[in-house]
Amino acid sequence: MGGQDKFWKLQRASGYLSPGPLPLPILGTLWCFGFGWHQGTLFSAKAYGKIFTVWVGHMPMIVVNGFHPVKHVLINHYEETSWRITTPFLRDTMNGKGILFSSGRCWKEQRLFVMSTLRLLGLGRKSIEHCVKEEASHMVAFFASKRGKPMDPFFSTFHAVANVISSMVFGHNFCTEDETFCKLVECIEYEANFFLSTFHLLYETFPWLMCHLPGPHQKAFSCLEFIHSFVRNEIRWHKEKKKTEDPRDFIDFYLDEISINKGDPESTFDEVNLVHVVYDLFMAGTDTVASTLRWALLFMVVHPDVQEKVQMEIDAVLTPFQCICYEDRKQMSYTNAVIHEIQRFKYVLVAGNYRLCSKDTTMLGFPIKKNTVIIPDIASALYDPEQWETPHQFNPNHFLDKDGHFFSRDAFIPFSMGQRLCLGASLAKMELFLFLTNLLQAFTLQLPEGVKELNTTPAKGRFVVQPYPYTICAVPRKVTAWREGGLLPK
Ligand code: HEM
Asked: Closest Cα partner for 306 from 343, 347, 335, 348?
């Protein structure tokens, strides 16, 4: 087909869709957004209103914009929008398995099982909170070992968060020097970032060609294989040990579920799905939390007044070296507000919840065909000017009432809404609170000598929105001296 024919075919197809910039053959509408897919891609298209179309090549994607439209689609159209997108790369890597990229029966069964097992593990003797506290104390020890010298918190935060998932899933954690675990962490990071690369786009467009060519996509496949074989080894080890009593972990419970469903040919519980589910927990639960934590540390340095208020609150609620519990957040309105504001202001997902429309329908007044990609843009709710007093400013007061008490906001939806709501939300909130408060109880975070400021713009090319690498100094605190000086309540 000639270039002109292609152009007019595209224009005809876009005629019935919601408004959006002019699509061009091959380029789609990415030409208006600097050819990249990042948070700004959607921001710059917002002039088109509450629902608009962007084209990636010849594929239309319907973007829903603003808190109320996003809520409407995720809640009122939950049935039509609960499918996940399938692309050549996802087909060749995930094959419709696990939770994150599955749909239909597989997704429903696996999701229900993971949710109930996470609840069980939270209640267990070696509860999830215990695992988070253990990792928080390792992180404090690591920061202390730097003795106030400049350090990059990247690896320690990623390692701590990955270890929480490890403890929950495998029943044990890994030391920082463990080479296999370091490789696992590296592979998770590589996989996540591959999704925004040009080679990923090339693979989605020419899968039959790309699978024979060398390039970063081949490394993405080998990273995936490394993670899968890591998990398969753990499964083998669990089968040999066959634990039936506490402390039990996610793999123990899943292996029981496979045995229970053995006679059912329709069951989706098998070892292949187990590998994919564990992979999903690492992929969804590591970079997201670690990046949010790194934004939080960065903002404490950039806003020393906020850091000081958080420390004052910690000191008012706890004695200097008293262990912090998740329950303590109820007495720490300001700290809680700061964590919420960081999650809002530096939202870590570019567009975390791509969905596929499962039948022909009408949404917000526009017809949507079966198999059309829908992106209810969560960031647009977190920056919605109708919901937030100062949407583009870091302002913990968004979550504080006039008496300084914490209150939650309807438009605060970083974990999405509806049927596919993040199933690690409670864990993520607990991790962010415990990691940050433990660090600020022990240290004051500062700029290294000679450094005037830190870059607070997001690093380019990352699937999970994160800061550029930075170094800070964690200076041990002199809480007792302050208290004696009458600056803190005795
Ligand atoms: C700050 C941290 C986190 C953020 C901002 C976040 C956000 C999200 C979002 C927006 C979704 C997509 C929901 C949708 O499609 O509407 C999601 C899904 C998911 N998240 Fe999280 N998440 C975080 C941490 C975690 C953690 C710690 C875990 C694991 C323990 C986790 C596991 C998952 C899983 C398995 C899904 C797929 C749910 C499904 O498709 O049914 N997430 N998350």
From this structure: 335
